[in-house]
Amino acid sequence: MSTNVDTPQIIDILMAVDAETIVKSYSAGTPTSPTSIDESMVYLIIRKENGVFGEGTGELKVTARIMDTLRWREATLTLNATYSAILYQYQAVGGEKDILSTPVSVVAEVKTPLPNPGDLLHPSTQTVNSYFWTAQAIAQGEVTYSFSFMIVDRDNVVQGYYSWDPFIQVTA
After folding, report:
1. I want to staple 125 with a disulfide (CB 3.0 to 4.6 A). Which of 36, 66, 99, 111 is the partner?
2. d(Cα 155, Cα 110) in Å, to the nearest integer?
3. What is the C-alpha R_g of the chain?
4. What is the tens place of the pLDDT at every residue in 53-104?
5. Phi, psi (rounded to 5 degrees) for 102
6. Does residue 12 contact residue 73 with C-beta atoms inside 8 Å?
7. Which residues have a Cβ under 8 Å from the Cβ of 165 and sit 6 or more positions away?
8. Which of 14, 63, 17 lies closest to 162, judged by CA?
9. DSSP code of 137?
10. Pick from 6, 12, 33, 22: which is nearest to 159 by CA?
């Protein structure tokens, strides 16, 4: 299925975090001074047509067009069973810093499927809060940005505050 290049699109960016290795290998940082981590601890996943390079790594360069919407979501490699990662701050750190609207966090109530052990071919649904950050591409250019995130354990105890810095390129 082809998409109309004139129609703004939603670009979903999934951030998969190796939380267990980060907690074991890095100092915990603070909310205002998170520990910078090696990009090998984060795997950024995106649709192929929006990735310039680095898909599946922590140094993903995304390409977007003006008026496209970017949405960032995070999960841990244990899919939040042992540890969870929560994005809490975006900051433009290099390049043309005003190419995106100010990213904001959004919580939306959504229905998701849930396997039904008694009838695996007919899942039930559960209502959950979906959380993501969103921004619009508003000007041409390239920016390096930093996302800070915390890691919490399954008892919701913060294990540390961390950050890393990928790129976004906005074309006409």
Report:
1. 111
2. 24
3. 17
4. 556 555 667 788 899 999 999 999 988 789 999 999 999 988 888 899 999 9
5. -60, 115
6. yes
7. 36, 93, 94, 144, 145, 146, 147
8. 17
9. B
10. 22
